[in-house]
Sequence to fold (204 residues):
Amino acid sequence: MRLALLGATGAVGGYFLSKSLAAGHEVRALVRTQSKLADRPGLTGIKGDATEAGDIRELIVGCDAVVSCLGNVKGHLIMERAAEAMLSAARARTPMPKCVFITSIGCGGSSWLIKQILSMIGGRAGFADYERADACFSRETDVPCVLVRPAALRERPGNGKYRAFRGDGTFARPIAKEDVAAFLLAAIASDRWDGGGLQLAGRR
Fold:
């Protein structure tokens, strides 16, 4: 399978990249600075901007799925623009690739309490950008897509145990970034989680 990846140099994206290559998939990764992406068999780095539909169209040529592990960094609000660009690029392809996009628990009405907490921690403007990106995917009806809202992310080894569900995510357990990446790869191969948004939490 050929996969397109946004956010390959981030923590979740790095885990996803490693797991995808280990599984024998070919990965095309969009990066602003290609020197940050080490040469690896099966990996092609494409220089570009994740908020530009034209760059994503170039990235996803021949791809079966496109995965976003992006997040806002240092006040740069990119989530809504990246969501719009990703969906626009996918719609222009025949057949359309599956799109997998990460936002956060608290988005899409998944937890009012967590939304308030994250808005205070990261700023209301930042969380509002996640909400708008989440809404782009929630209302999408043409492109096959999976919208993932992970609970609090932890930088620890994954245990391969996680829980994906729809409904209230207020008391969801934190999840290892490696386990988020594992779920994203599994979601590509199944249509079980297509459409709408789902919460992703850790398990003991």
Observations:
- The two ends are 31 Å apart (CA to CA).
- The CA atoms of residues 65 and 98 lie 5 Å apart.
- Helices lie at 11-22, 53-59, 79-91, 112-122, 124-138, 177-188.
- The chain is about 35% helix and 25% strand.
